[in-house]
Design goal:
Elements: H1 2-34, E1 37-48, E2 52-64, E3 67-76, E4 84-90, E5 96-101, E6 105-109, H2 125-129, E7 137-146, E8 149-157, E9 168-174, E10 179-186, E11 192-203, E12 209-218, E13 224-234, H3 245-258
Antiparallel strand pairs: 1-2, 1-13, 2-3, 3-4, 4-5, 5-6, 7-8, 8-9, 9-10, 10-11, 11-12, 12-13
């Protein structure tokens, strides 16, 4: 019996090490895909809950290993045109942001508000800027089918010094295309907080398979947000001013004047 244990323990160690390497490799690949440089995105966001509304948005973003800067700006409807949210997360620092409501209301967001709703949707501010695939703790915890597609279930947890309102995130990854088909986000106590389902996958301008349409729901909130990515363009050039409150206030003023 002791001989069997001496034989099996090294084997289990090898299997565990291989599993850890596979999880780290998968997470690193997905995390790097999110760090896709400067881009402009057009999308439609439909919120179905106690209040029902549709927004057409333009998103300017710069995502790299150094950090993430994102501006969400409302193009339509007319009564919300120019409304904007600036979000920034650099390195291991906490996320922060600014909300602008035309004509001249500016409100600062601190780290404690990153769990709040983005433009009234079922997404939070944190969902926009956190790259949980880069968290230190990554593990493949199973294999499951999602819409008849075999997926690895990747569990991500923030390590020491990594700030998040979430205690863990599970991602169902289509390994053939390396595309997340489902994401579930949990609180530190293990309660499901948010669920994101991919409903359409497209090939982007970088020849990568990416989620284009998403359904986002908050556990127990009775609300659902449909996100439809109409277009994306990478490799664009931005001035630093475009990622400041002054920059998107100028854009908002121009849109208000045009209306």
């Amino acid at each position: 019996m002791k001989s069997f244990i001496r034989l099996i323990c090294p084997l289990l160690l090898v299997v565990a090490t291989y599993a850890d390497d596979a999880a780290s490799g998968l997470a690193a690949k997905l995390g790097t895909m999110q760090q896709d440089g400067a881009s402009v995105v057009r999308l439609k966001m439909e919120v179905q809950g106690a209040s029902k509304f549709t927004l057409q948005l333009q998103i300017k973003q710069r995502r790299s290993g150094a950090g993430t800067e994102v501006v969400y700006q409302v193009l339509w409807p007319k009564e919300r045109a120019g409304e904007a949210v600036l979000l920034r997360k650099m390195g291991d620092g906490g996320a922060m942001g600014t909300v602008f409501i035309p004509p001249n209301t500016v409100r600062t967001l601190d780290g404690s508000q990153m769990k709040d709703a983005l433009l009234g949707s079922d997404l939070s501010y944190a969902d926009v800027v956190e790259n949980f695939f880069l968290w230190k703790q990554q593990a493949i915890v199973g294999t499951e089918m999602v819409n008849r597609v075999s997926c690895d279930v990747l569990e991500s947890k923030p390590g020491k010094g990594e700030r998040s309102h979430y205690g863990s995130v599970r991602t169902w990854v289509d390994r053939r295309r390396d595309v997340p088909l489902r994401v579930e986000k949990y609180s530190a106590s293990g309660k499901l907080v948010r669920k994101i389902e991919t409903t359409r996958v497209v090939t982007n301008d970088k020849k990568q398979a990416v989620p284009a349409n998403l359904t986002v729901s908050g556990a127990g909130q009775g609300s659902v947000t449909e996100v439809n990515g109409a277009s994306v363009k990478h490799g664009v050039s931005f001035g630093d001013r475009e990622f400041t409150p002054a920059g998107f206030m100028e854009v908002g003023a121009v849109r208000a004047g045009a209306d």
